[in-house]
Amino acid sequence: MRNETGGTMVVDLQADPYTINHHPYDLCDNGRKGRPLKADNDEICPPEDPIVSDTNLTHHRYSSVSSSIISIGPNSGEGSPCVMSPWARVSPAWAADFDEENVLETNGLIGSIVREEGHIYSLAASGDLLYTGSDSKNVRVWKNLKDYAGFKSSSGLVKAIVICGYRVFTGHQDGKIRIWKVSTKTPGKHRRVGTLPTFKSRVKTSVNPKYIMEGRRNKNSKKTKHKDAVSSLSMDVEVGLLYSSSWDRTIKVWRISDSKCLESIQAHDDAINSVMFGFDDLVFTGSADGTVKVWRREMQVKGTRHELDQVLLKQENAVTALAVKPKSSMIYSGSSDGLVNYWERSKGIFIGGILKGHKSAVLCLAVAGNLLLSGAADKNICVWRRDPSDGTHQCVSVLTGHMGPVKCLAVEEEQAYRNGAKASTVNDGDRKWIIYSGSLDKSVKVWRVSDRMATWREVDEPSASSGRKSSLSPHEGSGAWSSCDLDK
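RESULT FIELD:
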């Protein structure tokens, strides 16, 4: 059913029209083939099953840090305990007279938005506004999950979105970053105010022999734009720097005040899927070459200088996503083998472990308080809770409902979502979150989660008292799942 603006409909989650009107192979990204795995490449959709693939987890893996714990969560499939989780319960579609306050009182699925414009590749949330980017070149703006505004570029699909005040930065398939400004007089109106690199800098580098020779001699020449798709964006608001990563194997540092490229770094041997500014002047990058690298930043008079600090991970499988929690000095990385690696920096040393909860490639990660959310090509979102006392992680739930790979995640605190205000100062353990998940099934789903949530063991207790026992219950007193449990 179309709304007044057209192109959007709220669907009954019990019968998603995607499964009726679309061939399963539509889930695959028709991007570049024949290249090593990128975060949204065709390899996540093998011919036999475009969604879920059996992955060999016995690959060679090298990490420069010690492993402290392995927490294994449930995989998707029949008989999974995720169907017993209160977060996995299917909620009815929103009615025209729904009460938003009542909907937000319970954990679980709030609603689902289906777009007919294309697959969802990027999300960004700010207060009660949600920005969605797709392969249709459009960026739609939603307010309280209603079609609010939109703007369109003349380039390829929108692969990354970040928001800074009244400005929105979008990374595109054509290697450019576009800057949009929100009108203060006309709410919802967005006007393009610039492009990175700027037209002036592009002309200067193309006609000035000095810069032409510099570009030929120096692989880190900062005057050229990305030669391939912009894969991710990350911002250091305090310093006013924007980081961009690309499939051209470089990361670039942009000064927001004057749109100047301060530095270009040939960071990896293959496509870079993610860049994240972290903490203590550290920047993290993850690549299809299987490495996670740490770069230390030094501020200089005329710009910045980034030096390789260490390599956190070196493996055969591509690194597809990164997430950072600066307050706890935590870094997470997702891989094409379905694993999530994590590290905590303490006294200058990174100590970490591995989380296993997906059957196929992890495509996106997001941090919400003490919770980590991982979306994957198996169509599921695993919710992990970190114990601040010992740094261990436990899978507390699996969010299900998407009919295609989960490509992107965005998080906003519930108070900011309700009021369009800033986040609260409540402790991490007491905060509640609105989670947005974008998928290659062309839909965005909205969830409500909280840091205080029953563990899998607590959820399984009612069935145990009724004489039924779950074949996938976790070990008592731990957050670990045994491989024997998963095979039953």
